[in-house]
């Protein structure tokens, strides 16, 4: 491994605090060598915000680092161990195709995990090859960047490189590696792993590490493990509300895919909903709709209950007391979520103050949208710009009644009509990564090596609240022939 170490001025400033945790939490592992790495896409704004050097990353050595062929100074690549409930079934998992290269400390002193996804087998690969295909890695790049621009906490994508090798799925596909940036990769599943197979002292080490890394105010709390639980619940209540507000369907909310940091993580079969329908499911493997759009808040609460269970030995010396504390904290999720969702929905409708009947107003719009198959994003956009005649709701009795109620509601606040419209513009995105637009970008990139379609899409997605006419191309709906859209885990 030594001769592969490289010193170039990438700006990477790496530490390895995770490696100081008990040895059972990870396995040190070098990335596999790949034959002919080439840069597919590089995230320049992210490079700048992390204090990295674009020129160095574009150089041959830089691309070798992004492909795992060379190890940057200060790196200590490792695969993290974790478990998880996958569709309710508990199992041992771990980084089977990803490696934590190190934690980059930015010039502002923030700490981010740098992870290579698709970098070869690890001890946790089980039957898998540890590799990733170009299409799914570009897809993660596009959607995670879109989420970030929408103001939703997420892991980000620094780069995708092609490896020059073919990987075998149903057909042969070009191999690729994504560089993922995350506040951390600690998952609910990481706690489940230590809780199931570790000692209480190891569990405490993980909880203390997590507090130190994400929730430093915990030091002053009487029960810092309860604080940890409450903060994780609070962050998830924020996150899931934001998903619902833009129509994001994660698709595989297994406990291993829920990050303790509160970032959206693991972009597999995720997609954005077109027509409003709580039963929306895209994932080909989600036969029973466990992870349907409308079920995401319930699943988050279920996952958080699993997280709370792992903390029981730390919450109170008496198990019954610990259970009470945990149940109490988890039951707050629904209230917190509802509060965040309602306030986000009020924003989407230009409402500043709170009235008890707002929930009824919101629900009755949503049920009318569902009844007529109205597009979620474009309906709110049309309300924002008084362009409702362009939607399927135009002329429908339920909608006309609702519209009257809404107009009256808007008069019962002090803020002007202009501020109300402003609020709507900043709450209702003009563009989301529409499935057919994402597909056409991926097709051009993967099949023709033409990245221009993806670049234009990324550009539009980077300013979702601009509402410029150039964005119209990205708000058109798919042809009915391309529905229903199906996604695959992309492994
Ligand atoms: P995911 O569905 O991507 O959240 O992955 C679930 C588990 O499968 C994780 O432990 C992954 O590391 C592992 N995994 C996914 N794809 C592969 C692969 N190609 N090779 C080895 N392990 C994989
Ligand atoms: Mg995962």
TrEMBL record:
It comes from the Bacteria. It is an enzyme of class 2 (transferase). The active site is at 256 (proton acceptor). The keyword Zinc does not apply. Its EC number is 2.7.7.-, 2.7.7.108. It catalyses: L-histidyl-[protein] + UTP = N(tele)-(5'-uridylyl)-L-histidyl-[protein] + diphosphate; L-threonyl-[protein] + ATP = 3-O-(5'-adenylyl)-L-threonyl-[protein] + diphosphate; L-tyrosyl-[protein] + ATP = O-(5'-adenylyl)-L-tyrosyl-[protein] + diphosphate; L-tyrosyl-[protein] + UTP = O-(5'-uridylyl)-L-tyrosyl-[protein] + diphosphate. Mg(2+) binds at residues 257, 266. InterPro entries: SelO (IPR003846). Its cofactor is Mg(2+); Mn(2+). Keywords: ATP-binding, Magnesium, Manganese, Metal-binding, Nucleotide-binding, Nucleotidyltransferase, Transferase. The keyword ATP-binding applies. ATP binds at residues 94, 96-97, 117, 129-130, 180, 187, 266. Belongs to the SELO family. Nucleotidyltransferase involved in the post-translational modification of proteins. It can catalyze the addition of adenosine monophosphate (AMP) or uridine monophosphate (UMP) to a protein, resulting in modifications known as AMPylation and UMPylation. This is Protein nucleotidyltransferase YdiU. It comes from Clostridium simiarum. The gene is ydiU.
């Amino acid at each position: 491994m030594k001769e592969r170490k490289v010193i170039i001025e990438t700006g990477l400033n790496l530490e390895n605090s995770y490696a100081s945790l008990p040895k059972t939490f990870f396995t040190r592992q070098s990335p596999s060598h790949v034959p002919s790495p080439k840069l597919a896409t590089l995230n320049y704004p992210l490079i700048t915000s992390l204090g990295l050097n674009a020129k160095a990353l574009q150089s041959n050595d830089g691309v070798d680092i992004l492909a795992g062929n060379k190890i940057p100074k200060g790196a200590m690549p490792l695969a993290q161990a974790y478990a998880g409930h996958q569709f309710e079934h508990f199992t041992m998992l771990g980084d089977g195709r990803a490696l934590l290269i190190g934690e980059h400390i930015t010039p502002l002193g923030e700490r981010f995990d740098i992870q290579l996804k698709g970098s070869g087998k690890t001890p946790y690969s089980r039957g898998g090859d540890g590799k990733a295909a170009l299409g799914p890695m570009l897809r993660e790049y596009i959607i995670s960047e879109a989420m970030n621009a929408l103001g939703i906490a997420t892991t980000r994508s620094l780069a995708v490189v092609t490896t020059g090798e073919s990987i075998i799925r149903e057909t042969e596909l070009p191999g690729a590696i994504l560089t993922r940036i995350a506040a951390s990769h600690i998952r609910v599943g990481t706690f489940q792993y230590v809780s199931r197979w570790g000692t209480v002292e190891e569990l405490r080490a993980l909880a203390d590490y997590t507090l130190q890394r994400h929730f430093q105010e915990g030091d002053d709390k009487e029960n810092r493990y309860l604080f940890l639980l409450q903060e994780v619940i609070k962050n998830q209540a924020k996150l899931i509300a934001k998903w619902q507000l833009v129509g994001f369907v994660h698709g595989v909310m297994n406990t291993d895919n829920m990050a303790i940091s509160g970032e959206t993580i693991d972009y597999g079969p995720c997609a954005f909903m077109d027509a409003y329908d709580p039963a929306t499911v895209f994932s080909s493997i989600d036969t029973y709709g466990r992870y349907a759009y409308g079920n995401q808040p319930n699943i988050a609460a279920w996952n958080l209950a699993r997280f709370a269970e792992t903390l029981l030995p730390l919450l109170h010396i008496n198990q019954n007391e610990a259970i009470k504390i945990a149940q109490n904290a988890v039951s707050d999720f629904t209230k917190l979520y509802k509060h965040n969702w309602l306030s986000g929905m009020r924003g989407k409708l230009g409402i500043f103050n709170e009235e008890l009947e707002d929930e009824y107003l919101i629900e009755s719009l949503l049920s009318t949208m569902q009844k007529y198959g109205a597009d979620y994003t474009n309906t709110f956009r049309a309300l924002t710009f008084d362009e409702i005649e362009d939607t399927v709701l135009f002329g429908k009795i339920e909608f006309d009644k609702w519209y009257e109620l809404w107009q009256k509601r808007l008069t019962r606040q002090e803020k002007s009509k202009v501020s109300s419209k402003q609020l709507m513009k900043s709450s209702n995105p003009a563009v989301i990564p529409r499935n057919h637009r994402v597909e056409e970008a991926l097709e051009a990139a993967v099949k023709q090596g033409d990245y221009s379609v993806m670049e234009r899409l990324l550009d539009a997605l980077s300013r979702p609240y601009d509402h410029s006419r150039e964005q119209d191309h990205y708000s058109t709906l798919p042809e009915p022939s391309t529905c229903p859209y199906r996604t695959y885990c992309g492994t």
